Amino acid sequence: xxxxxxxxxxxxxxxxxxxxxxxxxxxxxxxxxxxxxxxxxxxxxxxxxxxxxxxxxxxxxxxxxxxxxxxxxxxxxxxxxxxxxxxxxxxxxxxxxxxxxxxxxxxxxxxxxxxxxxxxxxxxxxxxxxxxxxxxxxxxxxxxxxxxxxxxxxxxxxxxxxxxxxxxxxxxxxxxxxxxxxxxxxxxxxxxxxxxxxxxxxxxxxxxxxxxxxxxxxxxxxxxxxxxxxxxxxxxxxxxxxxxxxxxxxxxxxxxxxxxxxxxxxxxxxxxxxxxxxxxxxxxxxxxxxxxxxxxxxxxxxxxxxxxxxxxxxxxxxxxxxxxxxxxxxxxxxxxxxxxxxxxxxx
Length: 347
Description:
Elements: E1 3-9, E2 11-12, E3 15-16, E4 28-32, E5 36-44, E6 56-62, E7 68-72, E8 78-82, E9 86-91, E10 101-109, E11 115-118, E12 121-125, E13 139-142, E14 155-159, E15 167-174, H1 186-190, H2 198-204, E16 227-235, E17 238-246, E18 253-260, E19 298-299, E20 306-312, E21 320-326, E22 340-345
């Protein structure tokens, strides 16, 4: 695993913002697409803190779609664990090396698409009571979108040409998990259906309600727990997709499509090989459970499970980054009828 450079994603006083060593800045620069880099998160204690009683006990960093965590680094004071999209450092029992700044290292593969990405972080101090939800001052959420905000998320700027991985994999998540408690995007707010508040529409996708709005009603509890795996392979002059989906209603048929953008873009368009061409296969790629019929959709078996496959005679561009599943359009009065119910990011 070749690492081109090591970057510090750091802090000054009580701000966890991105920097490049040795010059302080708000955004890490020069990170190339589809490369593995060692990232260092520099986590501060609050100013004028009594470190014996209020020191960092845990740091959790979450990476957006396209990043892939390859390895986290342990040290004498912190152990660590990771998933594809997050890493957690936890202070070891008996550690008394309480510093005003802690450093956490992780090896991450960058996305194939250029851009500036936010990597939200949760810093938990030793005097947190462990009761959910975690709140300040014993927990600090570094997740705000702007570097001028009080708690800005660390930012990483990815440069270089857009590249498509030959093999990309992902896991399906149900709709309410996609926003993951992040601010509701402006385009989602603007797309609120008639008769529904922006807060309700945003919460439908798991986003926080817009600032100043009334809280949305509690979830109805009838959301499908869409899970499973997806795989996309670019090979020669073809692109294939395979999906394995659980949590569907037995016997029902669901449509699934390869989409532009990531699952975070809940309004993204179907991926088209010819952008000016017709809708549907063969210009689009739709996984199907019926061999030979790309428009048949995914029909769940008696256990709510389905396997699907799709093949196209073209190679998907790097912007093909997600597979969405839609519910059957059974209730025309529902403003989210035929809505998206699950998505897998392809990384």
